Structures are given as structure tokens and as C-alpha cells.
Amino acid sequence: xxxxxxxxxxxxxxxxxxxxxxxxxxxxxxxxxxxxxxxxxxxxxxxxxxxxxxxxxxxxxxxxxxxxxxxxxxxxxxxxxxxxxxxxxxxxxxxxxxxxxxxxxxxxxxxxxxxxxxxxxxxxxxxxxxxxxxxxxxxxxxxxxxxxxxxxxxxxxxxxxxxxxxxxxxxxxxxxxxxxxxxxxxxxxxxxxxxxxxxxxxxxxxxxxxxxxxxxxxxxxxxxxxxxxxxxxxxxxxxxxxxxxxxxxxxxxxxxxxxxxxxxxxxxxxxxxxxxxxxxxxxxxxxxxxxxxxxxxxxxxxxxxxxxxxxxxxxxxxxxxxxxxxxxxxxxxxxxxxxxxxxxxxxxxxxxxxxxxxxxxxxxxxxxxxxxxxxxxxxxxxxxxxxxxxxxxxxxxxxxxxxxxxxxxxxxxxxxxxxxxxxxxxxxxxxxxxxxxxxxxxxxxxxxxxxxxxxxxxxxxxxxxxxxxxxxxxxxxxxxxxxxxxxxxxxxxxxxxxxxxxxxxxxxxxxxxxxxxxxxxxxxxxxxxxxxxxxxxxxxxxxxxxxxxxxxxxxx
Length: 556
Fold this sequence. Notes:
The protein is α+β, with helices and mostly antiparallel strands. The chain folds into three domains: 2-67 and 104-178 and 273-352, FAD/NAD(P)-binding domain (3-Layer(bba) Sandwich); 180-269 and 357-388, D-Amino Acid Oxidase, Chain A, domain 2 (2-Layer Sandwich); 403-553, no CATH class. Helices cover 29% and strands 27% of the residues. It has 16 helices and 28 strands. The strands form seven sheets. Strands 1, 2, 8, 9, 10, 11, 17 and 18 form an eight-stranded mixed β-sheet that branches. Helix 1 (13-24) packs parallel to helix 4 (106-119), helix 1 (13-24) packs parallel to helix 8 and helix 2 (49-55) packs across helix 3 (61-67). The longest helix is centred in the middle third of the chain and has 25 residues, at 327-351.
């Protein structure tokens, strides 16, 4: 019988990211999957900006960007013509290092994650199935069936269900899966083709109530058709072929088909389980929530679940936090999942509504109104923040407290391009004077030096001189109290952080969790003997909610 800290059931993107993150944090994992090999086809395509920001911490982001396809624009078609074009190039500019929609198919995505996991010495155990498990005093005992059909026991401290919509983990803990099933049948076709809709951009046909989109893939003339059918076609889903639905793509979007590499149909549900945690068992990704593919949110939400849970499991397994910390996983993620399911359901229902009024809105109003609306920056910003998931915050979560200016506990700190801050030296107000001009020598020594990009530019200050951006070390802060008094906001790179305050300002203090990240949580001052005020407990930092390598310094 083998023993592991965490048994991960399911080796899709969610399970693989959980295994990778836990392994990086020193947690012993075992990951199993009942399939014989990784998938060679996929439904999930989009990798959103929030996922890429988190992937930066695993050194995955640049590989995904390089191997995937950046979508420059979406085109809305009516009656065989493209009526509106919405560019993506600038819609997210200034909000994230990744202001675009990246297409990276799930099968390629999985292979990349498997490669990285194997490099760390962890292999997915294929053709290994979870039969059931029981919870013991200090862990769980799982019953597995191996490739040879033999059954064996596996002991683990925790079990993570990343095993999809038909999750055995969810069935075992009995948390239910309330929701419904769309009457439409979804289809996916990977094609090689030519025509105006194969120009590397996203194309959506608005003519009919059934959805149809042409999603570009990397490579010339490659695309994925995703659509829905209903009525008589839906009634014979098992017999549905590409020939049954291809006429619309050919006639409406002028797709000149050369080859169909694969075609698949499936039902889509909208459901959220009642609990994400029960005892030592956790539900993640599709095992916890499934919804319409509208907006490309499913895989990204599952990856977000995995990262949210990973650092907490690592803290508890490593003895740095109590079991109660794990309760925050459900508290922070289930609300977002419920809102996401409700939102995607409304969007999908509107897009596929039948009737004369719905047709007029879809074919005449939408192509006119959306380009006008997106001409306004607040509308573009709202749309991008919502779809990219960078608007996600945990302000109402149990680990989040207080605020520092406009930054609240649980927020993702805004991203700022450091290169743009160079002009601030000459335009800064007297209260924002550069530290190199008026700060003490100790402060200048801390606030000088090169800026580590990405693990740097999370700057909440309105005017921050570029010379005041640096990496702050724990030894420097402990050694020089004058520097502590002068640094108003500082967040350390390559170490976990707890926030402490100086007056109304905020600086950082290292703690025991190895974190690099993009937001802040738990800001509640408590005065201490040395004049600093602690605002975050030792174990209340996380990779998806802490800022990185940033300092805001001023003389006092």
C-alpha cells in the first residue's frame, strides 16, 4: 500500500495543474486517470489572461503564448457577410501583460503540463480507476483498480476530485449536482479549410438561433467549428454527422472545406455541486461545476480552483496552517462558480433564443450596438475584465480584511507597465517625491537596483517614481528600522509575504509560504511594539492573491 499527501483523481488540465503546483511546493502527490493516454481531441480552447498571469509563476505562460494562437479580433456575421469587427489587440491594454485571447487547445495544453510534471519526477498513472474511498482519522483510504484489473489500496492525507462531470469523488461524498441540461446538442469539428472566415480571427454567425463559431487554431487554414443543433437533429444526436451541419458553415460563413480531422457531439449541462469540500475530500473543476462554453471560462475556472486549493493544502500538509484554512477554498470559489454558471446560462439563452424579436435583436441590433458600445473605454474594460477573469476577487472571503486606499483585501492588484512610469519622476507632486532625492541612505539602498519584470509591476500607488521600484529583502527590512519607517508600500519577490502598515501606508513582511503572485488580501492593521502594524496572519497569502516585487517609498 502506498502513501501520499494528496491523491488526485483525474489528469485533465485541472488535475495536472493541481499536481504541478503541489509538487512545486514540496507536497507528495499521486495522480491517476482511468484513460489509457492523454486526449487527442479537445473542447476547451481559450486560455484567459488570469490563467496566464498565474502560469507565469510556473514558468508556463511564455510557452503557452508561443505555442498558441493569439486572436486579434472577433467578427459578427449576418446573411453571409461580416457586419462588425471587434479588435482584441487593445481591448485589454494596460490591464495585464496578456491583453488578448489566447487559443491553445486542451489536448496540447495537457501534453505541456504532463511534460512539466514528468520533469519534476511525477508520472500520471494511466488506466487506474478510483472505485471508492473512506475517510479515516488522519486521512483517506482509497480503493483503486489498476491496468491489470487488480484492486489495491491507496492511503492519502487528502483526496482531490478532478474527475469531471461524472465524478466518483462527488458521488462518494454525496454533495449532489443540482442544475439542468441544455436541450441543444453541441458539436465540435476540427477542420482544414479556406475562405474569409479562416483569416486567423474569430467568426460568429448570428443568423440562426443555433450558435455557430469558427475559432482559429495555430497553423495556416486550421480552425475549429463549434456550434449547436436542436429539434430533429438533437433527437438523433448519436447519428449526427458533420455532413448534417456543414451546409450552414459553407453558406453562411463561406467556409471552403478541405478536410475534417475529427467531429464530435456532446450534451452541455449547467450545474454546481452543493459543497466543494467535505472532510478530507475536495471537488475541483468540472467535478464541482459545469456550464455553457460561452466565453471560454470552463477550463480556466477549473485551473483557478486548483491553484486556490494548492497553496492551502501545501500550508496545511507542511504544518504551517491549521485545517480551518482549507474551508476558505469553498468559501472563495463556490460563489464565483455559481455566478459564472448563472451568467453563462443567461448569455447562452439569449444568444440561442428563438422567435421574431430575438432574431431582430441578434441580426440587426447586436451588429450595430456592440461596435458603438465598445468604442467607449469603460465598456471595453468591463468586457475584458469579465471574460479574462482579472476582475475576480475574494473581498468577501474569510481571509480578506480591510483596505489600503482603493486596494481591498482579496483584490488582484492592478498591473502597471513599469516602462510607462519613467515620466513620473518629473511630474510627481511634492508628496510623491522620488526616494533617490530625499529618502535616507538606508531607504535608497533598498529602493535602488534593477526591477524584476512581472515579479514586479503590481503598483497600487497613483504616482510611483520608477527609481523606487525594487526587490525588498527580509534581512534589509529587519536590519534597518529607518528603512522600515520610510518604505510606505513594499512587496517582496520570491518569498511569501504578510502585509504590515506604517500609518496609513502598507509595506510587506516575509512569512513562511513560498509565494509569488498578483493581488493582496487581509489588510487589517494591528499596532505592534515597534510601531509597525501587522495586517495579515502568517498563513494568509496565496499565489492568486498576493502582490509581487513592488515598492512605494518616500521620505518622512
